[in-house]
Amino acid sequence: MTYLLVAGAFFLFGCAGTGPIDKKATAETKALYKNMGRLSKKHTLFGHQHATEYGHGWSVQKDRSDVKSVTGSHPAVIGVDFSGFSGRSPEAIQSAKEAVRQNVIDTYNRGGVTTAAWHFSNPVSRGGFYWVDSLSLPAVKYIIPGGEAHEQYKEILRGIGEWAHSVKGADGKLAPVIFRPFHEFDGGWFWWGKPHTSREDFISLWQFTVSYLRDSLEVHNFIYAFSPDNKFNSEAEFLERYPGDKWVDMVGMDNYGDMGRDRYAIDTAAFKLKIVADYAKKANKLAAFTETGLESIPDPNWWTNTLLATMKKHPMRLSYVLVWRNDTRSPTHYYAPFPGQVSVPNFMKFYHDPYTLFEKDLKNIYKRKKFLGIF
Protein backbone atom coordinates (compact mmCIF):
# COMPACT_ATOMS: atom_id res chain seq x y z
CA MET A 1 0.00 0.00 0.00
CA THR A 2 1.16 3.56 -0.72
CA TYR A 3 -0.35 6.63 0.88
CA LEU A 4 0.03 10.03 -0.78
CA LEU A 5 -0.73 13.25 1.06
CA VAL A 6 -2.03 15.98 -1.25
CA ALA A 7 -3.50 19.23 0.06
CA GLY A 8 -4.26 17.68 3.44
CA ALA A 9 -6.06 14.62 2.04
CA PHE A 10 -4.86 11.05 1.94
CA PHE A 11 -5.12 9.09 -1.30
CA LEU A 12 -4.73 5.32 -1.22
CA PHE A 13 -3.04 3.43 -4.03
CA GLY A 14 -2.29 -0.25 -4.51
CA CYS A 15 -5.77 -1.75 -4.03
CA ALA A 16 -7.30 -4.33 -6.35
CA GLY A 17 -4.15 -5.22 -8.24
CA THR A 18 -0.81 -3.46 -8.48
CA GLY A 19 -0.26 -4.28 -12.14
CA PRO A 20 0.03 -7.17 -14.58
CA ILE A 21 2.64 -9.89 -14.10
CA ASP A 22 4.11 -8.80 -17.44
CA LYS A 23 6.35 -5.86 -16.62
CA LYS A 24 6.55 -5.08 -20.33
CA ALA A 25 2.75 -5.07 -20.76
CA THR A 26 1.50 -2.47 -23.21
CA ALA A 27 0.14 0.79 -21.82
CA GLU A 28 -3.37 -0.25 -22.85
CA THR A 29 -3.04 -3.60 -21.08
CA LYS A 30 -1.81 -1.94 -17.91
CA ALA A 31 -4.64 0.59 -18.10
CA LEU A 32 -7.24 -2.15 -18.57
CA TYR A 33 -5.87 -4.02 -15.58
CA LYS A 34 -5.90 -0.90 -13.38
CA ASN A 35 -9.31 0.24 -14.53
CA MET A 36 -10.93 -3.16 -14.00
CA GLY A 37 -9.57 -3.10 -10.48
CA ARG A 38 -10.83 0.42 -9.92
CA LEU A 39 -14.29 -0.28 -11.34
CA SER A 40 -14.64 -3.48 -9.33
CA LYS A 41 -14.89 -1.45 -6.12
CA LYS A 42 -18.49 -0.58 -7.04
CA HIS A 43 -19.32 -2.40 -10.27
CA THR A 44 -19.00 -5.63 -12.24
CA LEU A 45 -18.75 -5.77 -16.04
CA PHE A 46 -21.27 -8.07 -17.71
CA GLY A 47 -19.92 -10.51 -20.30
CA HIS A 48 -21.34 -13.00 -22.80
CA GLN A 49 -19.43 -15.71 -24.66
CA HIS A 50 -19.41 -15.38 -28.48
CA ALA A 51 -21.85 -12.48 -28.11
CA THR A 52 -21.05 -10.72 -31.37
CA GLU A 53 -20.11 -13.78 -33.47
CA TYR A 54 -23.56 -15.36 -33.39
CA GLY A 55 -26.71 -15.64 -31.33
CA HIS A 56 -30.10 -17.29 -31.05
CA GLY A 57 -31.08 -18.01 -34.67
CA TRP A 58 -28.45 -15.84 -36.40
CA SER A 59 -24.74 -15.62 -37.16
CA VAL A 60 -22.17 -13.26 -38.67
CA GLN A 61 -24.12 -10.01 -38.66
CA LYS A 62 -22.10 -6.84 -38.14
CA ASP A 63 -22.48 -5.08 -34.81
CA ARG A 64 -25.20 -7.45 -33.61
CA SER A 65 -25.58 -9.29 -30.32
CA ASP A 66 -28.61 -10.72 -28.57
CA VAL A 67 -27.77 -8.58 -25.55
CA LYS A 68 -27.71 -5.44 -27.70
CA SER A 69 -31.03 -6.43 -29.29
CA VAL A 70 -32.54 -6.52 -25.79
CA THR A 71 -30.78 -3.60 -24.07
CA GLY A 72 -29.35 -1.37 -26.78
CA SER A 73 -25.79 -2.15 -25.65
CA HIS A 74 -23.35 -4.96 -26.27
CA PRO A 75 -21.99 -6.72 -23.20
CA ALA A 76 -18.98 -4.98 -21.65
CA VAL A 77 -16.98 -8.20 -22.00
CA ILE A 78 -17.06 -10.33 -25.16
CA GLY A 79 -15.89 -13.93 -24.89
CA VAL A 80 -13.98 -15.52 -27.77
CA ASP A 81 -12.20 -18.86 -28.07
CA PHE A 82 -8.86 -20.03 -29.46
CA SER A 83 -10.35 -23.46 -30.17
CA GLY A 84 -9.82 -23.11 -33.91
CA PHE A 85 -6.15 -22.16 -33.60
CA SER A 86 -4.90 -25.79 -33.77
CA GLY A 87 -6.02 -29.29 -34.67
CA ARG A 88 -7.42 -28.31 -38.06
CA SER A 89 -6.14 -27.79 -41.59
CA PRO A 90 -3.85 -24.79 -42.14
CA GLU A 91 -6.63 -23.10 -44.11
CA ALA A 92 -9.19 -23.64 -41.35
CA ILE A 93 -6.75 -22.40 -38.71
CA GLN A 94 -6.03 -19.24 -40.70
CA SER A 95 -9.74 -18.61 -41.19
CA ALA A 96 -10.43 -19.04 -37.47
CA LYS A 97 -7.58 -16.72 -36.51
CA GLU A 98 -8.80 -14.03 -38.88
CA ALA A 99 -12.39 -14.23 -37.64
CA VAL A 100 -11.34 -13.96 -33.99
CA ARG A 101 -8.82 -11.24 -34.82
CA GLN A 102 -11.49 -9.09 -36.42
CA ASN A 103 -13.87 -9.70 -33.53
CA VAL A 104 -11.26 -8.61 -30.98
CA ILE A 105 -10.37 -5.51 -33.00
CA ASP A 106 -14.02 -4.52 -33.38
CA THR A 107 -14.59 -4.92 -29.64
CA TYR A 108 -11.49 -2.86 -28.82
CA ASN A 109 -12.49 -0.12 -31.28
CA ARG A 110 -15.92 0.11 -29.60
CA GLY A 111 -14.28 0.35 -26.17
CA GLY A 112 -15.26 -3.12 -24.97
CA VAL A 113 -13.18 -5.87 -23.38
CA THR A 114 -12.25 -9.32 -24.76
CA THR A 115 -11.65 -12.52 -22.81
CA ALA A 116 -10.37 -15.62 -24.61
CA ALA A 117 -11.03 -19.18 -23.48
CA TRP A 118 -9.12 -22.06 -25.06
CA HIS A 119 -10.98 -25.25 -25.82
CA PHE A 120 -7.69 -26.75 -26.92
CA SER A 121 -7.99 -29.81 -29.14
CA ASN A 122 -5.82 -32.62 -27.76
CA PRO A 123 -2.47 -32.16 -29.54
CA VAL A 124 -1.34 -35.79 -29.19
CA SER A 125 -4.52 -37.83 -29.75
CA ARG A 126 -8.02 -37.80 -31.11
CA GLY A 127 -10.98 -36.85 -28.94
CA GLY A 128 -10.93 -33.08 -29.28
CA PHE A 129 -10.78 -30.98 -26.13
CA TYR A 130 -12.97 -33.35 -24.14
CA TRP A 131 -11.59 -36.42 -22.44
CA VAL A 132 -12.84 -39.53 -24.27
CA ASP A 133 -11.87 -42.73 -22.48
CA SER A 134 -11.42 -44.79 -25.64
CA LEU A 135 -9.45 -42.11 -27.54
CA SER A 136 -7.75 -39.51 -25.39
CA LEU A 137 -4.17 -39.48 -24.21
CA PRO A 138 -3.13 -37.47 -21.10
CA ALA A 139 -1.45 -34.79 -23.20
CA VAL A 140 -0.08 -32.55 -20.45
CA LYS A 141 2.90 -34.80 -19.71
CA TYR A 142 3.70 -34.94 -23.43
CA ILE A 143 3.70 -31.18 -24.08
CA ILE A 144 5.50 -29.78 -21.02
CA PRO A 145 9.28 -29.20 -21.18
CA GLY A 146 10.95 -32.58 -21.60
CA GLY A 147 7.85 -34.17 -23.12
CA GLU A 148 7.97 -35.81 -26.52
CA ALA A 149 5.44 -33.36 -28.01
CA HIS A 150 6.93 -30.22 -26.45
CA GLU A 151 8.18 -28.81 -29.75
CA GLN A 152 4.72 -29.34 -31.25
CA TYR A 153 3.21 -27.37 -28.36
CA LYS A 154 5.71 -24.56 -28.88
CA GLU A 155 4.63 -24.39 -32.52
CA ILE A 156 0.98 -24.02 -31.44
CA LEU A 157 1.97 -21.25 -29.02
CA ARG A 158 3.93 -19.52 -31.77
CA GLY A 159 0.70 -19.39 -33.76
CA ILE A 160 -1.06 -17.75 -30.82
CA GLY A 161 1.85 -15.35 -30.41
CA GLU A 162 1.73 -14.29 -34.06
CA TRP A 163 -2.01 -13.76 -33.72
CA ALA A 164 -1.56 -11.68 -30.55
CA HIS A 165 0.80 -9.34 -32.44
CA SER A 166 -1.83 -8.84 -35.17
CA VAL A 167 -4.79 -7.51 -33.16
CA LYS A 168 -4.21 -3.80 -33.77
CA GLY A 169 -7.07 -1.39 -33.33
CA ALA A 170 -7.91 1.73 -35.31
CA ASP A 171 -5.52 3.66 -33.04
CA GLY A 172 -2.63 1.41 -34.09
CA LYS A 173 -2.37 -0.11 -30.62
CA LEU A 174 -2.58 -3.80 -29.75
CA ALA A 175 -5.89 -4.81 -28.22
CA PRO A 176 -5.50 -6.35 -24.75
CA VAL A 177 -6.97 -9.83 -24.21
CA ILE A 178 -7.79 -11.60 -20.94
CA PHE A 179 -6.39 -15.06 -21.74
CA ARG A 180 -7.96 -17.89 -19.74
CA PRO A 181 -6.26 -21.18 -20.68
CA PHE A 182 -6.87 -24.64 -19.17
CA HIS A 183 -10.08 -23.62 -17.43
CA GLU A 184 -12.16 -25.98 -15.25
CA PHE A 185 -9.02 -28.02 -14.66
CA ASP A 186 -10.40 -29.44 -11.40
CA GLY A 187 -12.92 -31.54 -13.32
CA GLY A 188 -12.31 -34.54 -15.55
CA TRP A 189 -14.14 -33.55 -18.73
CA PHE A 190 -11.14 -31.89 -20.42
CA TRP A 191 -7.85 -33.67 -21.19
CA TRP A 192 -6.00 -31.19 -18.96
CA GLY A 193 -8.34 -32.01 -16.07
CA LYS A 194 -7.28 -33.22 -12.63
CA PRO A 195 -7.74 -36.97 -13.23
CA HIS A 196 -5.48 -36.84 -16.30
CA THR A 197 -2.42 -34.95 -15.05
CA SER A 198 -0.45 -34.46 -11.87
CA ARG A 199 -0.45 -31.20 -9.94
CA GLU A 200 3.23 -30.70 -10.75
CA ASP A 201 2.77 -31.24 -14.48
CA PHE A 202 -0.23 -28.91 -14.63
CA ILE A 203 1.73 -26.16 -12.90
CA SER A 204 4.67 -26.77 -15.24
CA LEU A 205 2.32 -26.43 -18.23
CA TRP A 206 0.86 -23.16 -16.94
CA GLN A 207 4.23 -21.61 -16.12
CA PHE A 208 5.77 -22.62 -19.44
CA THR A 209 2.77 -21.31 -21.39
CA VAL A 210 2.94 -17.89 -19.75
CA SER A 211 6.73 -17.70 -19.93
CA TYR A 212 6.93 -18.72 -23.58
CA LEU A 213 4.23 -16.30 -24.71
CA ARG A 214 5.44 -13.39 -22.59
CA ASP A 215 9.22 -13.80 -22.50
CA SER A 216 10.10 -15.70 -25.68
CA LEU A 217 7.37 -14.55 -28.07
CA GLU A 218 7.13 -11.01 -26.63
CA VAL A 219 3.34 -11.11 -26.24
CA HIS A 220 2.63 -8.10 -24.02
CA ASN A 221 -1.12 -7.62 -24.48
CA PHE A 222 -2.36 -10.64 -22.46
CA ILE A 223 -3.79 -10.66 -18.95
CA TYR A 224 -3.63 -14.23 -17.58
CA ALA A 225 -6.69 -15.64 -15.81
CA PHE A 226 -6.80 -18.80 -13.64
CA SER A 227 -10.24 -20.39 -13.28
CA PRO A 228 -11.18 -23.77 -11.87
CA ASP A 229 -14.74 -25.03 -11.80
CA ASN A 230 -16.64 -24.97 -8.50
CA LYS A 231 -15.12 -28.09 -6.93
CA PHE A 232 -13.52 -26.33 -3.94
CA ASN A 233 -14.72 -25.39 -0.49
CA SER A 234 -11.66 -23.65 0.94
CA GLU A 235 -8.83 -21.40 -0.16
CA ALA A 236 -6.43 -24.33 0.08
CA GLU A 237 -8.57 -26.39 -2.31
CA PHE A 238 -8.96 -23.41 -4.66
CA LEU A 239 -5.17 -23.01 -4.76
CA GLU A 240 -4.30 -26.70 -5.09
CA ARG A 241 -3.06 -26.29 -8.67
CA TYR A 242 -2.30 -22.59 -8.52
CA PRO A 243 0.98 -21.87 -10.34
CA GLY A 244 1.97 -18.96 -8.09
CA ASP A 245 1.34 -15.24 -7.94
CA LYS A 246 4.14 -14.54 -10.43
CA TRP A 247 2.18 -16.42 -13.09
CA VAL A 248 -1.40 -15.20 -12.69
CA ASP A 249 -3.11 -11.80 -13.10
CA MET A 250 -6.70 -12.73 -12.39
CA VAL A 251 -8.36 -15.47 -10.35
CA GLY A 252 -11.84 -16.70 -11.12
CA MET A 253 -14.37 -19.48 -10.89
CA ASP A 254 -16.69 -21.20 -13.34
CA ASN A 255 -19.93 -22.22 -11.63
CA TYR A 256 -23.07 -23.48 -13.30
CA GLY A 257 -23.89 -26.25 -10.83
CA ASP A 258 -24.76 -24.01 -7.87
CA MET A 259 -26.55 -21.46 -10.04
CA GLY A 260 -29.54 -23.57 -11.09
CA ARG A 261 -28.16 -26.27 -13.35
CA ASP A 262 -27.79 -28.89 -10.59
CA ARG A 263 -29.29 -26.95 -7.67
CA TYR A 264 -30.11 -23.43 -6.58
CA ALA A 265 -27.48 -22.82 -3.89
CA ILE A 266 -26.90 -19.08 -3.74
CA ASP A 267 -25.23 -19.22 -0.33
CA THR A 268 -22.81 -21.92 -1.53
CA ALA A 269 -22.03 -20.10 -4.78
CA ALA A 270 -21.47 -16.82 -2.93
CA PHE A 271 -19.23 -18.56 -0.37
CA LYS A 272 -17.03 -19.98 -3.14
CA LEU A 273 -16.96 -16.68 -5.00
CA LYS A 274 -15.88 -14.95 -1.78
CA ILE A 275 -12.96 -17.38 -1.47
CA VAL A 276 -11.85 -16.26 -4.94
CA ALA A 277 -12.38 -12.56 -4.26
CA ASP A 278 -10.69 -12.71 -0.84
CA TYR A 279 -7.62 -14.36 -2.32
CA ALA A 280 -7.48 -11.77 -5.09
CA LYS A 281 -7.57 -8.96 -2.55
CA LYS A 282 -4.87 -10.59 -0.43
CA ALA A 283 -2.59 -11.27 -3.41
CA ASN A 284 -3.27 -7.99 -5.24
CA LYS A 285 -4.94 -9.78 -8.16
CA LEU A 286 -8.13 -9.17 -10.07
CA ALA A 287 -11.11 -11.46 -9.46
CA ALA A 288 -13.91 -12.50 -11.80
CA PHE A 289 -16.91 -14.81 -12.08
CA THR A 290 -15.40 -16.26 -15.23
CA GLU A 291 -18.30 -18.47 -16.37
CA THR A 292 -21.84 -19.06 -15.20
CA GLY A 293 -25.40 -19.12 -16.45
CA LEU A 294 -28.58 -21.14 -16.61
CA GLU A 295 -29.30 -22.86 -19.91
CA SER A 296 -32.55 -21.66 -21.51
CA ILE A 297 -33.09 -19.26 -18.56
CA PRO A 298 -36.44 -20.82 -17.61
CA ASP A 299 -36.48 -18.87 -14.33
CA PRO A 300 -37.84 -15.42 -15.34
CA ASN A 301 -36.14 -13.74 -12.36
CA TRP A 302 -32.80 -15.54 -12.53
CA TRP A 303 -30.78 -12.39 -13.27
CA THR A 304 -31.63 -10.54 -10.06
CA ASN A 305 -32.77 -13.33 -7.72
CA THR A 306 -29.89 -15.71 -8.45
CA LEU A 307 -26.98 -14.06 -10.28
CA LEU A 308 -27.10 -10.59 -8.75
CA ALA A 309 -28.00 -12.01 -5.35
CA THR A 310 -24.93 -14.28 -5.47
CA MET A 311 -22.53 -11.51 -6.41
CA LYS A 312 -23.96 -9.10 -3.82
CA LYS A 313 -24.19 -11.61 -0.97
CA HIS A 314 -20.80 -10.57 0.43
CA PRO A 315 -18.60 -7.51 -0.15
CA MET A 316 -16.56 -8.64 -3.16
CA ARG A 317 -14.59 -6.94 -5.91
CA LEU A 318 -15.40 -8.78 -9.14
CA SER A 319 -14.05 -7.45 -12.43
CA TYR A 320 -16.62 -9.20 -14.58
CA VAL A 321 -19.19 -11.96 -14.78
CA LEU A 322 -19.61 -13.92 -18.02
CA VAL A 323 -22.50 -16.13 -19.08
CA TRP A 324 -22.10 -18.78 -21.75
CA ARG A 325 -23.05 -18.63 -25.40
CA ASN A 326 -26.30 -18.52 -27.36
CA ASP A 327 -26.14 -21.29 -29.94
CA THR A 328 -27.27 -20.25 -33.41
CA ARG A 329 -29.18 -23.49 -34.19
CA SER A 330 -30.28 -25.05 -30.91
CA PRO A 331 -33.68 -23.89 -29.66
CA THR A 332 -32.64 -24.45 -26.02
CA HIS A 333 -28.88 -23.84 -25.75
CA TYR A 334 -28.67 -20.18 -24.77
CA TYR A 335 -27.57 -18.31 -21.66
CA ALA A 336 -28.41 -14.67 -22.41
CA PRO A 337 -31.88 -13.40 -23.32
CA PHE A 338 -33.00 -12.39 -26.79
CA PRO A 339 -36.11 -10.39 -27.73
CA GLY A 340 -39.19 -12.22 -26.48
CA GLN A 341 -37.34 -14.56 -24.12
CA VAL A 342 -39.12 -14.96 -20.77
CA SER A 343 -36.36 -13.37 -18.65
CA VAL A 344 -36.11 -10.12 -20.67
CA PRO A 345 -37.99 -7.91 -18.15
CA ASN A 346 -35.78 -9.14 -15.30
CA PHE A 347 -32.65 -8.79 -17.43
CA MET A 348 -33.56 -5.15 -17.97
CA LYS A 349 -33.62 -4.71 -14.18
CA PHE A 350 -30.19 -6.35 -14.12
CA TYR A 351 -29.05 -4.03 -16.92
CA HIS A 352 -30.23 -0.88 -15.13
CA ASP A 353 -28.77 -1.87 -11.75
CA PRO A 354 -25.87 0.53 -11.01
CA TYR A 355 -23.75 -2.50 -10.05
CA THR A 356 -23.64 -3.88 -13.60
CA LEU A 357 -21.74 -2.29 -16.47
CA PHE A 358 -22.29 -2.90 -20.17
CA GLU A 359 -20.26 -1.72 -23.14
CA LYS A 360 -22.04 1.64 -23.34
CA ASP A 361 -21.05 2.32 -19.73
CA LEU A 362 -17.32 1.98 -20.37
CA LYS A 363 -15.40 5.20 -20.88
CA ASN A 364 -11.74 5.04 -21.89
CA ILE A 365 -11.05 1.73 -20.16
CA TYR A 366 -7.76 1.56 -22.07
CA LYS A 367 -6.55 4.92 -20.72
CA ARG A 368 -5.05 5.57 -17.31
CA LYS A 369 -6.39 8.68 -15.64
CA LYS A 370 -3.94 11.30 -14.46
CA PHE A 371 -4.30 12.99 -11.08
CA LEU A 372 -2.04 15.96 -10.36
CA GLY A 373 0.45 14.56 -12.83
CA ILE A 374 0.53 11.15 -11.12
CA PHE A 375 -0.82 8.03 -12.75
Structure overview:
The protein contains ten helices and 13 strands. The chain is an alpha/beta fold and 375 residues long. It has a single domain, classed as Alpha-Beta Barrel (TIM Barrel), CATH 3.20.20.80. The strands form three sheets. An eight-stranded parallel beta barrel has the order 3-6-7-8-9-10-11-12. Strands 1-2 form a two-stranded antiparallel sheet. The two termini are 15 Å apart. The N terminus and C terminus are likely disordered. Belongs to the glycosyl hydrolase 26 family. One of its GO terms (cellular component) is extracellular region. It is found in: Secreted. One of its GO terms (molecular function) is mannan endo-1,4-beta-mannosidase activity. It catalyses: Random hydrolysis of (1->4)-beta-D-mannosidic linkages in mannans, galactomannans and glucomannans.
Summarize the structure.
This protein is α/β, with parallel strands linked by helices. Helices cover 32% and strands 15% of the residues. The longest helix has 21 residues, at 90-110.
Characteristic key phrases:
375 residues, alpha/beta, TIM Barrel, 8-stranded parallel beta barrel, two-stranded antiparallel sheet, 13 strands, globular, disordered N terminus, disordered C terminus, hydrolase, carbohydrate metabolism, glycosidase, GH, Mannan endo-1,4-beta-mannosidase
Set out the fold topology.
Blueprint: E1 2-6, E2 9-13, H1 27-39, E3 44-49, E4 54-55, E5 58-59, H2 66-71, E6 77-81, H3 90-110, E7 113-117, H4 140-143, H5 150-164, E8 177-180, H6 199-216, E9 222-226, H7 235-238, E10 250-254, H8 266-283, E11 286-292, H9 302-312, E12 320-323, H10 344-352, E13 356-357
Parallel strand pairs: 3-6, 3-12, 3-13, 6-7, 7-8, 8-9, 9-10, 10-11, 11-12
Antiparallel strand pairs: 1-2, 4-5
Helix pairs in contact: 8-9, 9-10
